UniProtKB/TrEMBL annotation:
Domain of life: Eukaryota
Protein name listed in UniProt: non-specific serine/threonine protein kinase
One GO MF term attached to the UniProt entry: ATP binding
Xref: SMART domains: S_TKc (SM00220)
Domain Protein kinase, first and last residues per copy: 16-334
EC number: 2.7.11.1
SUPFAM superfamilies, alphabetized: Protein kinase-like (PK-like)
Length: 415
């Protein structure tokens, strides 16, 4: 799809009405706006090129790469294909769909403040969607080069965390289920379920054959670009890319020679998911992953942890390609659905329907499970008198052994 024509303005954009500020970044700010023509609420990304003229180049690159995606790309943030330039303030404005859930960094930070990690069910689901978005980038011949939580936008707010953990821990607040339980199940079971996660911010994005072929790489005119902690070691020049300019020909290792592979984005994905699962920033050095990867809790599927471990491998050759990554995350999500979370939530909702007037604050999940009402003893110890005889006999044998060791006579009082 062709890049949009940039509208040139003398001042305020007459096509949009400013509503409120949403956030600030290194290159500018994001605001909520209303499109005058149809009243649609949207977002406006304003890039301030006055303080740093290089931002104009990044903005132009973002327009070019972002506009190449069609509206049918579900896991890519929706670009409105509308751009404006204000000469007086040297501001470039890009208009896009508004995502009410904010960005993933905001959710991770909020959950960390609440001392309650993002539930593994949702983290695995989001990882699957982000992997699909990354595959869409590479299928379009684009390396993102700055994949991180701040560049993943959420379609709706994440308000289910406490409820999901309550279900998992076996004791959930009635108020949480009443407020969010049915909405969550309806969302998940909907055949037309819309994606939650959307990759955005293509300022460092680049069209290159390296996105399509793992043996190719590209060098940026700016050298190493990206965000520290999410940049692959070959991007930082810590190791040389194994392949030279000729595909399939292995060259000698050369230090301080930054290269970008499609699998450099896969490394960034692994760092993002680590942050998502643990709430902790990824390590600044790739060599620390051997111990850090163990911090992903065992509540996640084993397959999930195996794939993420491969994503952050020091050697790009050992990382999965975008297709294997997408399939691996999908398989991990299928696996985590066997945890019983959804069936337990359905039982809690059924309990609320049958007893809506209960004064109880909590619902005990174990009391609602089928096995809780059909308990049978696993062993048959006989009637109580026989059990007591066996216990008395065992105690007498134990006492006799102790007395023999210390050399005292055993006196048994008979009743």
């Amino acid at each position: 799809m062709a890049s949009p024509i940039t509208r040139r303005l003398d001042g305020n954009d007459p096509n949009y009405m400013f509503l409120e500020m949403l956030g600030y970044g290194v290159s500018g700010s994001v605001a909520k706006v209303r499109r005058v023509s149809d009243g649609k609420i949207m977002a406006c990304k304003a890039i301030d090129c006055l303080t740093n003229p290089s931002f104009l180049e990044l903005g132009s690159r973002e327009i070019h790469t972002w506009a190449s995606f069609s509206a049918s790309e579900k896991y890519i943030a929706g670009f409105a294909h509308d751009v404006a330039w204000t000469e007086r303030t040297q501001t470039l404005r890009l208009y896009m769909k508004l995502y009410e859930g904010g960005d993933l960094r905001k959710v991770i930070t909020e959950c960390r403040h609440q001392e309650l990690p993002i539930h593994p069910f949702m983290a695995t689901y989001w990882a699957m969607e982000i992997a699909r978005g990354l595959k869409a980038c590479h299928d379009h011949g684009i390396i993102h080069r700055d994949l991180k939580p701040a560049n993943v936008l959420l379609d709706v707010p994440y308000v289910y965390n406490r409820m999901l953990w309550g279900i998992t821990d076996g004791r959930v607040l009635r108020g949480d289920v009443k407020t969010h339980g049915k909405a969550f199940l309806d969302w998940f079971k909907s055949p037309s379920r819309l994606p939650w996660c959307h990759i955005s911010d293509f300022g460092f994005g680049k069209f290159t054959p390296a996105a399509l072929f793992s043996e190719y790489y590209t060098k940026g005119s700016r050298g190493s670009v990206g965000t520290m902690g999410y940049m692959a070691p070959e991007v930082l020049g810590e190791v040389s890319a194994r392949y030279g300019a000729t595909p399939g020909v292995i060259n000698d290792v050369v230090k301080n020679d930054p290269k970008f592979y499609g699998k450099s984005d896969v490394y960034s994905f692994g760092c993002l998911v680590y942050n998502l699962c643990t709430g902790r920033p990824p390590p600044p050095a790739a060599t620390e992953w051997s111990t850090r990867i163990l911090e992903i809790p065992d509540t996640y599927p084993e397959l999930f942890r195996e794939v993420i471990s491969k994503c952050v491998d020091f050697n790009p050759e050992n990382r999965p390609n975008n297709r294997d990554l997408s399939n691996g995350m999908a398989d991990a999500f299928i696996e985590i659905q066997n945890c019983g979370l959804l069936s337990d939530l359905a039982r809690v909702l059924q309990d609320l329907d049958s007893d809506p007037g209960s004064d109880s604050t909590y619902i005990n999940i174990t009391d609602l499970r089928p096995e809780a009402t059909n308990l049978e003893p696993t062993t048959n110890m006989g009637d109580p008198p026989e059990c007591q005889k066996k216990l008395d006999s065992a105690l007498r044998r134990a006492l006799a052994a102790v007395y023999r060791i210390v050399g005292l006579p055993l006196k048994v009082r008979r009743t």
